[in-house]
């Protein structure tokens, strides 16, 4: 709305055009999004061109986005920015070979940041080289991305049953950075829960709640891990308690609605909660995913497919793709379900929800 008002005053307002283009993407209007981005490019060939590439990528038109970025390079756009965006585009689309090559070029040209090196470490991990990835993360333990590097290295170490070493990575950082104690506790609890130690993670959160009574982040993560550990009714009770204190919190409305829907509990109530969340955040991918999922659980595969497709377009989250594919499969569109799952797996090969879905429907797939 504000972008449209700005354009009434100045039809060539580049910033307003960029905002409007992204708004059209969010609302699923691809043709208007592209038309607006192309208008922005006509008024500002470089910034508008980058915006057009972003819109194309958001619409999963990866080859066209790649072509647009290469065209910008030819037209004289800053080479470092083109290279950075090409690297990110390749990584996001699952083309790890190209992503590695482009990030390495940034590194060798002296244009790399700590984040560049973090991406390279992630690629090494995805390529099935945990030793190499841990070594790459180790070089970032005291960098601007230290917590991310340490958390990811700890996850790989837990995969290899090196529990003490894994937890020491976070504990050592906490000792040197007491101001990040809460964030580290949450990260540690999630990490343990993800590796089959939900009860230990819950104990950590219980201790944290003694230090920070009624802290919303701790209480929320506790509810999530309770569900993860199979304590569904306790998780629902925890979310209901939080919601009684913050009845209009859209994140809580969505979390409770999704948890109920995922376990086929009180589906009409679950849908009502999710729709209340969407009234506050209408373009939130997680809430749209929840609405699609509750419709699927209610037996309405047709409308679920459309909602989940829209949610995935906005968020490109692997768990949303798992849901979308399952709804497609149930509605008889099995080839399309396979395509959706394959594309999402290329983007995020480590997604546990996606891999669990594939195991159920395609147990012989590699």
Topology diagram in text:
Elements: H1 2-9, H2 14-26, H3 30-43, H4 45-58, H5 62-74, H6 79-92, H7 96-108, H8 114-126, H9 130-138, H10 146-159, H11 163-176, H12 181-194, H13 198-211, H14 216-228, H15 232-245, H16 250-262, H17 267-280, H18 285-297, H19 301-315, H20 318-330, H21 334-347, H22 352-361
Helix pairs in contact: 1-2, 2-3, 2-4, 3-4, 4-5, 5-6, 6-7, 7-8, 8-9, 9-10, 10-11, 10-12, 12-13, 12-14, 13-14, 14-15, 15-16, 16-17, 16-18, 17-18, 18-19, 18-20, 19-20, 20-21, 20-22
Description:
With 366 residues, the protein is mostly helical. Among the domains are: 1-77, Tetratricopeptide repeat domain (Serine Threonine Protein Phosphatase 5, Tetratricopeptide repeat), CATH 1.25.40; 113-176, Serine Threonine Protein Phosphatase 5, Tetratricopeptide repeat, CATH 1.25.40; 178-222, no CATH class. 78% of the residues lie in helices and 0% in strands. It contains 22 helices and no strands. The chain has helices at residues 2-9, 14-26, 30-43, 45-58, 62-74, 79-92, 96-108, 114-126, 130-138, 146-159, 163-176, 181-194, 198-211, 216-228, 232-245, 250-262, 267-280, 285-297, 301-315, 318-330, 334-347, 352-361. It starts with a helix and ends in a 5-residue tail after the last helix. The relative contact order is 0.05. The mean pLDDT is 93.
